[in-house]
Structure formats: structure tokens, C-alpha cells
Design goal:
By secondary structure, this protein is mainly alpha-helical. The chain is 71% helix and 2% strand. It has 13 helices and 2 strands. The chain has a two-stranded antiparallel ribbon with strand order 1-2. Helix 3 packs across helix 7 and helix 10 runs antiparallel to helix 13 (222-256). The chain is globular.
């Protein structure tokens, strides 16, 4: 595991030290730079509005994550708690949408965004991702494994459906919620094709589009590219560190179950 960890961490380490190398030493194969400089970070911050792009990416990723968790919880609770006509068929349709890649529906979504007048806006980046079949499936399976005796006791005490969901079920799904938060946040943070299709100005774009701006037909600016990539990776690393314990507990509980 230590060897595998080193293999996984080495590209991150190389990205960071490459961002700290001066321009005349970018292609050195030494494991530690002979000289450390912040000129790549300075150039990256001046070349593109990376600050506003990072803010846009945080906004889009946070809103998408929040809505997918909310819609996933509500939909899963409805599938588990209530019985209605064609509920299994609707659930199967939900599951099938997970098998459809975004590239298949990208053009219809683009035409819809254009007709709504939302082109080149953060709303257009968020709108198609309000709900996630993966979140609904995972929450449904977790809720089905929840002890029914606890739910029946809560109902006998007079707790309604809304109270049972938020005061009993959700507090016991913290591990799953943390895991989905990381998965959805990282997936949205790394999204490239959809923002590339919709963005027209850097001020309404995300950081992944900004990183691509350092790769041109004239060549790749490796120093600023690595600096921008490092700055784009920091929020993800911070999020994982904050939620690491919940994620590990979720995987352990899933394995035991």
C-alpha cells in the first residue's frame, strides 16, 4: 500500500515542484528544483482571471453538489417510504439514465440552454446537473438497509415523514453523504466539455477552461500550466482532508453490510 501510495502521489508531487521551477529548468529531471521561484504563479494569475474562474468553479460545484444531494435524498425516501403506481418502473428508468453519458444529451441540452437565453452563464453550467441517478440509487440502497424498527418506533411517537427523514435517517447517512459529496464535487470540478461548449468569456468560465488556455498551437507553457493546475487542485485536496474520516467510515460500513 505504501508503494501504491507513492505511485499515486508522485504525479502530484511532480506537478508542484514543476510549478516552482524557473523557466530555464522546467525540463530538469531532478527530484528537487535547484532554484525555487513563484514566477509561474505570478504569470498564471496575470495571464488568465484564475481567481474569478476558481470562484465560478466553487460556486458551480457547490450548488450542483447541494442540489444532487437534496434531490437524491428526497427521491430515495419517496421510493423507499411510499408505494405508488409504476414505482418500480420509474425507479428502473432512473437507473437507466445513469447509463447514458453526458455526451449523448449534450447537443439537446445546448439547444435548450440557447433557447432559454442562458448561454455563457453559470446557470447554464448548473441547470443540467440538478439531479443525479447515482445519488438516487445509492441513497435508495442505504435507506432500504436502514432498520425498519427504528422507523416504526418514530412513527408511533408521532413523527411525520419529513421529521423521520431529516432527524433520523439523514444523521445516520453521514458517511454516504460525505462520500457522495466528494464524488459529485470532484466530478463537477473536473467537468470540461460542458463548460467548453457554453463558455464564451473567461469571466463566466471555470478553472478547467483556464488551464487549457496555456496549451496553444505555438506550444505548451508548462510552468504556468503546472501552477494553475496546482491552484485548481488545492480545494479538492482540502475537501478530501476535511471529509476523509466520514468517507473511510462509509466504505467500512458498506463492506460490513
Amino acid at each position: 500500500m505504501i508503494v501504491l501510495s507513492l505511485v499515486c502521489l508522485f504525479p502530484v508531487y511532480w506537478m508542484i515542484i514543476s510549478s516552482l521551477r524557473p523557466a530555464n529548468a522546467l525540463l530538469d529531471d531532478t527530484f528537487w528544483p535547484s532554484a525555487i521561484t513563484l514566477e509561474n504563479y505570478t504569470y498564471a494569475l496575470k495571464a488568465i482571471p484564475i481567481g474569478s474562474m476558481l470562484v465560478n468553479t466553487v460556486i458551480v460545484s457547490t450548488v450542483v453538489t447541494a442540489f444532487q444531494l437534496l434531490t437524491g435524498l428526497l427521491a430515495a425516501y419517496a421510493f423507499v417510504r411510499y408505494r405508488f403506481p409504476f414505482d418500480k418502473f420509474v425507479y428502473a428508468l432512473m437507473a437507466m439514465t445513469w447509463l447514458i453519458p453526458l455526451q449523448v444529451v449534450m447537443i439537446p441540452n445546448y439547444l435548450l440552454v440557447v433557447r432559454l437565453g442562458l448561454l455563457d452563464s453559470l446557470t447554464a453550467l448548473i441547470l443540467p446537473h440538478f439531479a443525479s441517478a447515482l445519488a438516487i440509487l445509492l441513497f435508495t440502497q442505504s435507506m432500504r438497509a436502514f432498520p425498519k424498527e427504528v422507523l416504526e418506533a418514530a412513527r408511533m411517537d408521532g413523527a411525520g415523514g419529513w421529521r423521520v427523514l431529516w432527524e433520523i435517517i439523514v444523521p445516520n447517512l453521514q458517511g454516504m453523504i460525505a462520500s457522495l459529496t466528494i464524488l459529485v464535487f470532484i466530478s463537477t470540478w473536473n467537468e470540461y466539455f460542458w463548460p467548453l461548449l457554453l463558455s464564451r468569456t473567461p469571466d463566466n468560465s471555470v478553472v478547467q477552461i483556464g488551464i487549457q488556455m496555456f496549451m496553444t498551437a505555438e506550444g505548451t507553457q508548462w510552468g504556468p500550466l503546472m501552477a494553475a493546475s496546482t491552484m485548481a487542485s488545492l480545494p479538492i485536496l482540502i475537501l478530501y482532508v476535511l471529509l476523509q474520516r466520514q468517507v473511510v467510515q462509509s466504505f467500512m460500513k458498506s463492506g460490513i453490510r
